[in-house]
Write a structure and sequence with these properties.
Layout (H helix, E strand, L loop, with lengths): L2 H16 L9 H30 L3 H14 L5 E3 L2 H8 L8 H11 L6 E17 L21 E18 L3 E9 L18 E11 L6 E9 L15 H6 L2 E11 L2 E8 L2 E2 L5 E2 L12 E13 L2 E10 L22 E10 L2 E10 L20 E13 L2 E13 L9 E14 L2 E13 L18 E16 L1
Parallel strand pairs: 1-2
Antiparallel strand pairs: 2-3, 2-19, 3-4, 4-5, 5-6, 6-7, 7-8, 8-11, 9-10, 11-12, 12-13, 13-14, 14-15, 15-16, 16-17, 17-18, 18-19
């Protein structure tokens, strides 16, 4: 607007008009003084008008700030992305807290180890070199790879490989919501066909993926939904790398919904498991088929941790699953349908005292596995399936560096006494050390006594009366490797 200039012009003309009316008695000095005063008043008026124009044209800063603040508050807070090597190692470690990762996430949220509204990106690689020798041609019983003649020939084998690689995301959203997904590459333990370089084995899968709702500061209950380990047994191992036969026999992975409760050392998990043949160690018939079209299986685990002292505690637990995987008729093939279910139970204990850990576990089916009876070998009746484990580990200092030493024995009993598929024993002597909190170097000496692959465990793929299982086929294995998480 220009009304300031217009007003100044009018004032100037007014001054000229008044000059002739000035008193004749007014001296020139008085007239000059009056003109000077009028000019000063005119300048003050122009400055005031300019100030008003400036205020009118400028934005209202407090109002603008209030609007910006309101917009910022109404905008949802976006999660940040972080790396945490210790969290990555714990979540992706395949030897510890195998079916208790969800409890770990909730406790980490409670302690502040996992920040709110944050996504944690994690990865891990297990790389190993091994040498194996068997007393029987092309029969190697080491369970950390699927024992087939497709990958192991003659009586000596050696490898330098990536055993597994993982990539995971852990998201903490708000106060109650968490999400977890883990991708796994594991050609040695893949159910794909062919050699370890066959594309059927070199696939990446979503190993775990679930939503987890819970806040231990407000409630002892939590809920998870998705693909997860089943709450059956402990299935952990004190070995630095090699899993026990209990995990190989009963460690479950399935779709389902889990309700959990934690309170003063007690922990209860009840999981509704999708029926049919699940990914691992769960099979519940659905209309005499393996089609997973009903939520008709379940597992429950109850455990208690007793604090004996500040540096000593005892974990005791028991589990039950309605439909174990040991229900097929002869001949046995992975994931085949069952005519009836076969439940299983588990009991376990773990004692930690300073730098020592001792662990024991026993799991068994309630009924005989029908497929362990081969009609061509009627002298061997059907048998229950069981597995047990006893191990210990201690941490000692060697040249100032903490080093873990472990000794572990586990047995998988898969047939009647005296049968070629009766059992497989596993001895493991291990040593490991951590270069960083998420970098473990390890070595193991493993003795596998017996060769009992679950597919056609009692025969059916050979001439009648013959089986490729051999309880006298023994293997000796040397393993050297590293587990690195980031």
């Amino acid at each position: 607007m220009h009304y300031g200039k217009q007003l100044a012009t009018v004032a100037g003309f007014g001054l000229l008009a008044l000059l002739p009316l000035a008193s004749p008695a007014m001296t020139l000095e008085e007239l000059a003084a009056r003109v000077e005063r009028l000019d000063e008043e005119n300048q003050q008026l122009k400055a005031r008008i300019a100030e008003l124009e400036t205020r009118q044209s400028e934005p209202n800063e407090p109002a603008q700030q209030s609007i910006a603040t309101a917009r910022q508050q109404s905008r949802p807070e976006l999660p940040s992305v972080k790396l945490d090597h210790q969290h990555a190692y714990t979540m992706l470690d395949q030897t510890t807290l195998i079916n208790r990762k969800q409890e770990y996430i909730l406790r980490s949220r409670q302690s502040g180890a996992l920040a709110d509204n944050t996504v944690y990106l994690s990865g891990a690689i297990n790389a190993i070199a091994n040498y194996q020798k068997s007393n029987t041609e092309s029969k190697f019983g080491y369970l950390m790879r699927h024992p087939t003649a497709n990958n192991q020939r003659t009586d000596k084998v050696s490898e330098a490989i990536i055993h597994s690689a993982q990539l995971a995301l852990t998201a903490s959203l708000g106060d109650w919501t968490n999400a977890y997904m883990e991708f796994l590459y594991d050609p040695h333990q893949s159910f794909g066909t062919g050699t370890t370089t066959d594309l059927n084995r070199n696939q990446v899968q979503l190993r775990h993926g679930y939503l987890l709702f819970g806040n231990l500061d407000h409630s002892p209950f939590y809920f998870s939904l998705g693909k997860m380990t089943t709450p059956f047994g402990l299935t952990d191992t004190l070995n630095p790398f090699t899993s026990s036969t209990v995990w190989h026999a009963f460690g479950g992975l399935a779709y389902g919904a889990n309700i959990g409760w934690m309170h003063e050392g007690w922990n209860l998990d009840i999981m509704a498991i999708q029926g049919g043949a699940q990914f691992r160690a769960a099979n519940m018939p659905v209309d005499d088929s393996n089609v997973p079209s009903k939520l008709n299986n379940f597992a429950v685990d109850l455990n208690y941790t007793l604090d004996l002292s500040a540096d000593s505690h005892l974990l005791l637990g028991a589990s039950y699953i309605k439909g174990s995987p040991y229900c097929q008729d002869f001949p046995v093939v992975h994931f085949n349908p069952c005519s009836d279910r076969n439940a299983a139970w588990d009991a376990y204990a773990q004692w930690n005292h300073r730098n020592w850990t001792v662990q024991a576990e026993y799991a068994s089916t309630l009924d005989e596995w029908p497929g362990t009876f081969n009609p061509s070998l009627p002298q061997y009746s059907a048998a229950k399936v069981s597995s047990w484990n006893l191990g210990t580990r201690t941490e000692q200092r060697v040249f100032g560096q903490p080093v873990n030493f472990s000794l572990d024995f586990s047995r998988f009993k898969s047939g009647p006494s005296g049968s070629p598929w009766e059992k497989q024993d596993q001895w493991v002597l291990g040593m490991s050390t951590y270069l960083t909190p998420s970098t473990k170097m390890f070595t193991e000496l493993v003795r596998a006594e017996g060769y009992v692959p679950l597919n056609f465990v009692s025969g059916g793929n050979m001439q009648p009366g013959e089986t490729h299982s051999d309880t006298h086929a023994d293997s000796s294995i040397f393993v050297l490797g590293a587990n690195v998480a980031f």
